[in-house]
Amino acid sequence: MNNKTKTAIKLDRRQFLKISALATTSGALMGTSENRSPIKITNKCQRMDQKNTIFSRQLWDYEFVKRIESSIDRASMEALEKVKGWTPLDQALDAAAWALDHKFASGSEGGQPHSQAYEWDEPVRRKKVEFQNPKDASRKIKKAARYLGADLVGISPYDPLWTYSLLIKENFESEPGSDGKPEFEHFVPEFPFEPKSVVSIAVEMDYETMALSPSSLESAATGLGYSRMCSVGYSVATFIRALGYRAFANGNDVSLSIPYAVAAGLGELGRHGMLITPEYGPRVRLVKVFTELELKPDNPKAFGAWEFCKNCKRCADACPSQAIPTGEPTLEGKTISNNPGVLKWYIDPEKCIQFWRENGTDCANCITACPFNKPPMWHHQLSAGIVALPVAPIHTIMAKMDKFFGFGDVNDRRANAAFWEKD
Ligand code: SF4
Ligand code: SF4
Asked: What is the pLDDT of residue 134?
């Protein structure tokens, strides 16, 4: 099944792959082939090859990598301190936040299927625990998921359309070839069981440090999100296996995440290509658990985000690389890392990642600037109710008021410097 190819390019993998929020965005789609969402999906929408995702292209797309690499070399810590004001404390927190991900799911940011916390074939309890019905099973799985650290959890049926047609996996164990390039595998996904249900889990990312985008402290918020993804995903998969049913967790590997999250009622797709949840806006990371256990699915829920996006372009304004479109939704992407055929706003992941390279770390301006990204305060709950009204002028005013009150500011170096002074 494995078609090994020695044609990879070595570069600063961690930084390149930390495209975090956009990990699922480059191919992000809305809804499922069973039409479980109001968004239009056409026949042009096909299964995507993981090789074409923006993060996997580093393994084989020489021209693209050369273009990105030619922009700027990764700055040293000293240079970053001087130019950006990021300190060794910031960078230490960043390293610590990513630590669990790197230890137990290394390479997962870019998608490293069938490995470590995201293995497919962990042992399963021999005797199955029986449930009254799929609804009963769903309730128990969700309760356990919340206990194990999920901030949001929903269930949808498995849909092969969202599984990558071919997977790509860097082989960290192998010796680099004579040309100094690491090996990778490119293979058809053959799971050890037929998945029936998908448990979609969202973990919240820290509000305060995410608001310091684009910086080393913001990268810590992202890293902690990734570490929590592998912890919660692996734990929930283990819970299901301990009940006697096969299950495995997957993050940015194996399949797209947003279609499942939408189908499971966790939120809507936004202009910036990410999931917008009513609770945390786009400030979440997603992990899925595929299982053979039959569960009762949730229904997609529209709460007004898609409508709101039509009149709000704050993410596009805050984007330093002009990667987010300001026009109407379309059916066509701009690069091979977009999967066409779904009516949505297609971001340009090449421009995005180019900025990451130039910036010296990742970026989350589009998450921070989004008016749905809020801490849980009463007036934000009130605004959430107004958002549901499909009235364009109200949405435009709300987006402006949000900015007026200082929410969603990015590039705030003073706030970055003040972080360690606050208890
Ligand atoms: S704001 Fe732009 S450059 Fe930054 S992560 Fe979002 S899309 Fe990428
Ligand atoms: S910033 Fe505005 S336009 Fe962009 S995703 Fe959020 S609500 Fe939609």
From this structure: 98
| Span 203-234, pLDDT tens digits | 999 999 999 988 889 999 999 999 999 999 99
Instruction: For residue 402, give the H/E element and its range.
Output: helix 392-404
Asked whether 48 and 27 are in contact (CB, 8 A), the reply is yes
Residue of the nearest CA to atom 1 in ligand 2?
370
Cα–Cα dist 341/231, whole Å = 34
Q: How confident is the model at residue 259 (pLDDT cuts 50, 70, 90)?
A: very high
Q: What's the alpha-carbon Rg for the chain, to the nearest Å?
A: 21
* pLDDT over 70 (residue 13): no
Residue 148 neighbours by CB under 8 Å, 6+ apart: 232, 235, 236, 239
Separation between Cα atoms, residue 292 and residue 120, nearest integer Å: 12
Predicted local confidence at residue 72, as pLDDT: 57
218, 321, 367, 370: which to mutate for ligand 1, most atoms within 8 A of CB? 321
For ligand 2, the distance from its centroid to the CA atom of residue 314, given in whole angstroms, is 6
Report the separation in Å between the CA atom of 324 and the middle of ligand 2, taken as the mean of its atom positions.
10
Full-model pTM: 0.86
